[in-house]
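We emphasize that the prediction below concerns an isolated chain of 131 residues; any contacts that depend on oligomerization or on bound cofactors are therefore not represented. The input was used exactly as deposited, without trimming of termini.
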Amino acid sequence: MAKINFDSQSPVIAVDIILEGERGTKRGIKVALDTGATYTMIPWEIAEALGYKPEISKEKVTLITASGVETAPVIEVKKIKFLGESIDNVPVVCHDLPPKSYVTGLLGSSFLRHFKITIDYLKGILEISRE
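Result of the prediction step, given as a token string:
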């Protein structure tokens, strides 16, 4: 079991993840843990830096954002690592969050569904395990 402390007064639980592309390229980003998001979401720039071409993805999803309804491509990222745990071949949505966001992406169910997750807001502790 791995755990981290988080600021329970913050509007989001912000965590760091490592993304790995097809050719072994790695990038770290700060994301919001979002148990309500179906997919993990990363910015276009990061997807391209990892060697992906989101614009040619055949799979798309519809997103409801503050600015309206948008369509975004889904790609499969070779690996996502979080708190020492990793999942291979994770479907992620490529979409940029607003510039003043606390984070650059979301860690959603496409990754989280593989773990037992405990969030203790009173103590500000997040734990994940493969139990």
